[in-house]
Design brief:
CATH class of the largest domain: Mainly Alpha
Strand order of the largest sheet: 1-3-2-4
Number of strands: 6
Radius of gyration: 27 Å
Largest sheet: 4 strands, mixed
Number of domains: 4
Helix content: 55-70%
CATH topology of the largest domain: Arc Repressor Mutant, subunit A
Distance between the termini: 45 Å
Number of helices: 20
Length: about 400
Amino acid sequence: MDKKELGKKIQRERKKRGLTQEKVEKHLGLPQKAMTRIEAGERAPSTLELAKLAELFHMSIGDFLKQETGDDDPLIALHRVAPGLEQDPAIREEVNRCVLLCKEGISLERLLEQPSRQRVLFSPFEKPHTLSEAIRQGEQAAKEERRRLGMGGIPIRDIVELLTSQGIWCAAMHLPPEMSGLFLYRASVGMVILVNTIHGSARQRFSYAHEYAHALFDANHQVLISDTMNSSELLEKRANSFAAAFLMPEEGIAEILYFLNKGLASRTSFSIFDVSTQGMIETEERKLAKNQKLSPQDAAFIAYRFGVSYQATVYRLHSLRYLSQNEREELLEEESKGRDYLRLLDLEDIEHVDKIPSRQRELRTYISRLVIEAYRQEKISRGRVIELSKLLNLPPQDLIELANIENE
């Protein structure tokens, strides 16, 4: 690497951590003004000095020597997939802010010596060639992923927290109305899932699960966009199938229907072995078919339970053969009755709950905690907190006071 380029990178990393040149010189045992010359590109640090710098900055030597090219810019990758989209000033600002937050988050995690983010991987599936194959792959992958995570059939209460635990950056941002989400994978930031903040909460949850499928299946792609234009593509169909099965597992649906005493066969046969006669005892239990029919209220309750939309729930019930095609259409037409039921019981109608209006809420929540912790441990300076607070759109004094409270 060119000495000047390396010097600029060292200077940038030093300032990120709020360290003075004098403090670095003292740590490395260098004479006065040595860091000035290194950062100006007048002399290159020795291998030993670079190793000590890497240790001080909680980086690897490879991080210093890695060439930074525009090709790693997510906006350039975005342009390749959707030419012109990155030219939208609002989207460019949102993506830039998101990428900067992710980079700062990685830097703070290193400062705090947190475990490195692991890239999620999944057993490779061949690219689906038919719609049925795409749906089957999505269903199978969702079952295996739930098994891997030890989730069984329980609802996912906080999908952002779940995806974050898998090393994925998540954020909601303003996107064009026809776009539900974005999946980015770049060396500089790792995996990033962005969903459209103008959509309802239920749709955002489904979008997070949909983009998670891309993270598992399609991480070899630099950028994937989920919108109305490509909704018919098999990779998108597979991701939709995964999202439905991941959010509404078959096992969980069966459990809640059993609790509701619905969706069962109207006629159940029993047969047991009689040890005294060495014969069979048989009987049959009948239930009124109308009592087994799923109502709009049942569908709304299931939607509420799993945090998904009413429509997504009805389609999932049909996919699992709890509904005929006619019953599916009837329930879709009676959606308003289901919503009335939720309002009557004062249950949260997840599809119409407004998100917190601030941008990148999820990223800001996580990274602000890292900032407080890094300041509390004296890993970053007060000036660095102020700098980061601007990026987070948070009052700097509040962050500093919170850190001081934690320190007491």
